[in-house]
Amino acid sequence: YFNGKFMSNSKDSLAITLFSELFMVEQLAKAQLTRALPEGMEFSQFSVLNHLAGIKESRTPAQIARTFNLTKGAMTNTLAKLDWAGHISITPDWADARRKLITLSPSGRSARDTALKKITPLIDAFLANVGVDRLQKAVPVLRDLRIKLNEGL
């Protein structure tokens, strides 16, 4: 891949270029969004708050971890920080005492909304610079790739 053009028709070259671009986009997007988040909020915390804001029912830590393709242990750290900040409520699962249920607290909804307001100008600038039409065409391809990767291709 050179100067915007594939130098080879090789499928391997295409795959390497595609994944390289995806990884770099992820890194750059996370870095820019993290800088725009409110002081002290990590990208992982915003992601969990945003996820919980979009669902109606409680989730277990394991369910949330699966959503983000993380281990339960890795998710536990983020949930502990959110709990300490008062952004989530952790209650026992009365149907299975071994499990806990996570819900978004009013403070968490407010923190998520504040964070969203802070990152919205960055997202708007990105949309304007790249072009809404181009991104609308890219989203179905990226979604299909995500689904296939999640299924193990």
Structure write-up:
Strands 1-2 form a two-stranded antiparallel ribbon. A hairpin with a 7-residue loop joins strand 1 and strand 2 (100-104). The chain has helices at 11-36, 43-53, 61-67, 72-84, 106-130, 132-150, and strands spanning 88-92, 100-104. The chain has 6 helices and 2 strands, in the order ααααββαα. It is mostly helical and 153 residues long.
Overall pLDDT, averaged?
A: 90
Low-confidence stretches: none
Q: State the order of secondary-structure elements, H for helix, E for strand.
A: HHHHEEHH
Given the structure, what is the number of helices? Answer: 6
What distinguishing features does this structure have?
153 residues, mainly alpha, two-stranded antiparallel sheet
List the helices and strands and how they pair.
Elements: H1 11-36, H2 43-53, H3 61-67, H4 72-84, E1 88-92, E2 100-104, H5 106-130, H6 132-150
Antiparallel strand pairs: 1-2
Summarize the structure.
The chain is mostly helical and 153 residues long. The chain is built from six helices and two strands.
